[in-house]
Amino acid sequence: MQTMQQKRAKYALDKVEEVKEKDSKDLNQKEYKSYAQNFPAMIRMNGLGQAAAYYLSKGSGEKGNPAYNALYELLSDWMKKPGQPYAGLDNLMIGITTKDMHHYRQAQAEALLLLDWIKKFAKAFIEEEKKNEPAKSAAL
Fold first, then answer.
1. What homologous superfamily is domain 4-125 in, according to CATH?
2. How far is CA 120 from the centre of its chain?
3. Structural contact between residues 20 and 122, judged by C-beta atoms closer than 8 angstroms
4. In whole angstroms, how far apart are CA 10 and each of 4, 82, 104, 106, 138?
5. Alpha-carbon distance 128 to 112, whole Å?
6. What DSSP letter does each residue of 10-21 carry, written as one string?
7. pLDDT digits (tens, 9 = 90+) for 74-123
8. What is the pTM of this model?
9. Coil, strand or helix: which one is 52?
10. What is the pLDDT at residue 85?
11. Residue 32 pLDDT > 70, yes or no?
């Protein structure tokens, strides 16, 4: 039997690996990694509702950014799972806007725990673009 921490870690690892395998035209991995780093801080500063609404707005629509959308969707999907604060609801924003403050506080704490894993795995598995390194001389 897995602990909740193990379930979070597995879910986060699976999601980061999905991003890593996607074609770069569909989703910019560097942006995903950057936005994953910023999401927990935004939640701490502004609250889960404001941060989630921001990521949703930046990721949706015709000109939406796929990296923002992927992060919003992974958080929303996690929060709807059985045993989570918004289990059984259609999406995260419905939970945030219809449930009580107790559920909201639980959801915010859970979001921070999950996104900590996302942040760590994105940092570990999504490579930085190589900067223009000087060519090594073959002749010595």
1. AF1862-like domain (1.10.520.30)
2. 11
3. no
4. 10, 16, 24, 20, 44
5. 24
6. HHHHHHHHHHHH
7. 999 999 999 999 999 999 999 999 999 999 999 999 999 999 999 999 99
8. 0.88
9. helix
10. 96
11. yes
Q: Which of 115, 76, 116 shows the shortest CA–CA distance to 96?
A: 76
Contact 33, 124 (CB under 8 A): no
**At a CB cut-off of 8 Å and minimum separation 6, what does 73 contact?**
59
pLDDT of residue 27: 87
Numbers of helices and strands, H then E, in the chain: 6, 0
Read off the amino acid at residue 85. P
DSSP-derived 3-state class of residue 89: coil
CA–CA dist 23, 12 (Å, integer): 19
Task: Please provide the average confidence, as pLDDT, over all residues in the chain.
Answer: 90
